[in-house]
């Protein structure tokens, strides 16, 4: 999970940008966050990100986010989501019961 998210974050983060990884307990869950200061997820693809295989990369598979969501939500009673703002960056979150 983390490796996928960090590679995606690295792909969009400029040399002077930052990637922050955090983990904290929230209401009985462990909540993990990967935040980048990249371009943000294009708004036109956001609605499809968890519905179908989707990539904006020439050499991408688009095969990571959907399985990540399914693994967390189907097998670990968890949640997987993102918040993103064009030009500002993206945070991916996942949480699961401690
Ligand atoms: N941190 C991010 N910032 C901006 N867009 C993102 C970010 N993470 C994912 N995306 C968008 O979501 C798409 C799907 O991501 P996913 O990891 O499933 O596949 P991919 O990265 O395109 O391909 P691969 O993982 O095989 O290299 C990406 O192509 C990109 O458009
Ligand atoms: Mg990827």
Word description of this protein:
The mean pLDDT is 95. The relative contact order is 0.24. With 98 residues, the protein is an alpha+beta fold. A hairpin with a 2-residue loop joins strand 1 and strand 2. It is built from two helices and four strands. The chain has a four-stranded antiparallel β-sheet with strand order 1-2-4-3. It has a domain at 1-7 and 50-85. The radius of gyration is 13 Å and the shape is globular. The protein binds adenosine-5'-triphosphate and magnesium ion. Adenosine-5'-triphosphate binds at residues 4, 8-9, 12, 36, 38, 41, 45, 49, 54-57, 60-65, 90.
Keywords:
alpha+beta, 4-stranded antiparallel β-sheet, binds adenosine-5'-triphosphate, binds magnesium ion
| Mean pLDDT across all amino acids | 95
Q: Please state the structural category.
A: alpha+beta
- Count of DSSP H/I helices: 2
State the separation between the terminal residues, measured CA to CA: 17 Å
Instruction: Count all strands and give the number.
Output: 4
Strand numbers in spatial order across the main sheet: 1-2-4-3
Strand count, sense and barrel status of the largest sheet are: 4 strands, antiparallel
Distinct small molecules bound, one entry per kind:
adenosine-5'-triphosphate, magnesium ion
Helix content: 10-25%
Assembly annotation: single chain
Spans of at least 5 consecutive residues with low confidence: none
Radius of gyration from CA coordinates: 13 Å
